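Readers outside the structure-tokenisation community will struggle with the description of the input data as it stands. What matters is that the chain and its backbone geometry are given together, residue for residue. For illustration, here is how one protein appears when written out as sequence plus structure tokens:

…
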Amino acid sequence: MPLSAHPYLPNSVPEVRQQMLDTIGVPDIEALYATIPAHLRLTKDLRLPEALTSEAHLVSHMRRVLAQNVPAMPATSFLGYGCYQHFVPATCGEINGRAEFLTAYAGESTEDHGKWQALFEYTSMMAELLEMDVVSIPTYDGYQAAATALRMGLRLTGRSEVIVTTAMPAAKLAKIRTYLPDETTVHLVDIDEGLGRLTAESVTRLISDCTAAVLIETPNVLGVVEEAGSEIAEAAHAHGAIVVVATDPVSLGYLAPPASWGADIVCGDIQSLGIGMHYGGGNGGFIAAHDEPEFVFEFASRLFGLSPTVEPGEIGFTDVAYERTSLARREEGNEWVGTAASLWAITAGVYLALMGSEGMRDLGLTVAGLTRYAKDQIAALPGFTVPHLDAANWREFTVQHATLNASELRARMLDAGFHAGVDLGRFFAERGDQLLLSVTEQHTQADIDALVRELGALV
């Protein structure tokens, strides 16, 4: 098919495109793709609609498309599984929309206008929340952060085996397995189905002098708080292994920070800290460790700190140990530093500053209470069971129906106007009968009661 200009694609005029190819000395576009194996290349045209040449028609088209979206409202949505409906203060959007923050690329603007200080403030507040000393600028998301934390463990120990819980989102586990070096042996450990969490024995029996790192997630994918963390950490440290814990920072207003019971590296996603759901895209991953040089120099992401200037008594905000990054070392870097989610870091920093320690504590307790209330109310319904009813859940929990599988249950509730949770069977074949519900501080007791009434009306 001959190439033609597209009204919304820059440099798509054939003559302009040819000039670009001539400038770099390439005969045609196909030559640019020659290194891509044939089996990975698309051999047919994409089924794209004709380009709309009128802006008015384009706007009308986009309005029709966007009108198909159904907003997730706290009163009717109990969705979770990695993207949560926590409250976003208006100040968060006001500050992250400022031009000096919104338009600066990864903190590299010629005139910084305070972005580096804002990132330093974010890392300082995160460090206080996590009871850690060093916190990175966000990676793409929490999945990336978990994979990078494990790679740090591999480098720190010089070993090639890791132990990873399976009680995490399926895509996170897939990310980890594809991001680790090919020579890495990954030992997977399942939860005890009766408890909904790991047992110390199931993990410690896999730990040996070949273990580089052990990764656990708490609360886990079922919302259950892992209670054997300190025992697992003690066993891992006895063999010289690194303990990596993936968690949600907003839970630490209620739960003890993993660093307090043995975590060497803590990672997770900051989406719950004042960042909207954004169709599942408002994510940024954090990695935190103690202020120990061997750990600091294994961070792949940028770190910000304070430094004295030439003016006595004056301080500046600057990169810490910049020489360790791939930006400085290029191909000799431990890992490649890509574009950071710095804008979300600033947003999370605003949120943490607004909340303060008391606000985070109140938030954690509120979510814990609502979770317990929702579990008990649904468990009392005829035909329903709540697995792990006696377990400590935070924000999420699973439910089962006597005759409807999770997909049918979710569809029936959607007809009634409720996003009643996530069908876990979409991600774990063995959990097709389990629906994962999420409650946050935005839900009221009346919201939960309304959900329970609709669930009880199912026949």
Notes: The chain has a mean pLDDT of 92. The chain is about 35% helix and 15% strand. The first helix runs from residue 14 to 24. Residues 225 and 265 are 18 Å apart (CA to CA).
